[in-house]
TrEMBL record:
Site feature location: Lowers pKa of active site Tyr: K79
Pfam families per UniProt: Aldo_ket_red
The keyword Signal is assigned to this record: no
Protein name: Aldo/keto reductase
Length: 277
């Protein structure tokens, strides 16, 4: 499987989305976010994932517009926060995000969590999509039953579901559902906030290739078809996180990683069915 930092996956509407990018959750507003995005683009990253909640859309937009590379070569994702999840609220939230980003269009716009009036929010996303202000729309933190409900009324099928996904939380039922319905999965918290560095099996696999457990984890995701957006504000880590394209895991390696799944016990963030409780 030949993968590079420029590799993309084709979404269900034909848009090409990079398989690897930078997440900026909890990256501080101001120079920390600007530097992280700049370093990532300079290192060859082609995707940046932000959200209204992160409060750093303006910094992301500033760097995207800075001329490091052409706008069409950068894939920008943002999300509508739960407080704005209604038809009118989402339309206003999108306009506000675009004003902060300072961009003419967005590449991907997501519903952040399946709460409040997310159904009305989806109708708003479809209208935004039809207006050509966003190239693709999708969701985040949706479980199979949420996706089933969405698909029951959606005029535009979601292209992406961004979820907590890592060796301890592999959600095989969601993987199957997403593949069956041509929805791409994107992993947040892919390296378990650094905890993968303490997992013996990942350490052992990495030693075979001269790679770290982080490299093994990120490479595993790409090989099983999950887009990944590791977060870092450290220049060296941003650069080294992308050092995953000069080796390939074997089927046996992948089988070992599959045994690490702990199901709900492995979850780091909120369960989407209990978000806000």
């Amino acid at each position: 499987m030949t993968l590079t930092l420029n590799s993309t996956t084709t979404l269900n509407n034909g848009v090409e989305m990079p398989i690897f990018g930078l997440g900026v959750y909890q990256t501080e507003v101001g120079s920390e976010t600007e530097n992280a995005v700049r370093w990532a683009l300079q290192a060859g990253y082609r995707a940046v994932d932000t959200a209204a909640l992160y409060r750093n859309e303006a910094e992301v937009g500033k760097v995207v517009q800075s001329g490091i590379m052409s706008r069409e070569d950068i894939f920008v994702t943002s999300k509508v926060w739960v407080n704005d999840l209604s038809y009118e609220g989402t339309k206003a939230a999108f306009d506000a995000s675009m004003e902060r980003l300072g961009l003419d269009y967005l590449d991907l716009y997501l519903i952040h969590w399946p709460v409040n009036d997310w159904q009305g929010a989806w109708r708003a996303l479809e209208e935004i999509y039809d207006s050509d202000r966003v190239r693709a729309i999708g969701v985040s933190n949706f479980l199979p039953h949420h996706l089933e409900e969405l698909l029951s009324f959606a005029k535009v099928a979601p292209a992406v579901d961004q979820i907590e996904f890592h060796p301890f939380l592999q959600t095989p039922d969601l993987q199957v559902f997403a593949e069956k319905n041509d929805i791409k999965l994107t992993a947040w918290a892919p390296i378990m906030k650094g905890r993968v560095t303490k997992v013996p099996e990942l350490i052992e696999i990495g030693e075979k290739y001269g790679k770290s457990p982080v490299h093994v984890t990120l490479r595993w995701m790409l090989q099983i078809g999950v887009i990944t957006i590791p977060k870092s504000a450290n220049k060296d880590r941003i650069e080294t996180n992308a050092d995953i394209f000069d080796f390939e895991l074997t089927d046996e390696d992948i089988a070992v990683i599959e045994t690490l799944d702990k199901g709900e016990e492995g979850r780091i963030g909120p369960n989407p069915d209990r978000f806000g409780e």
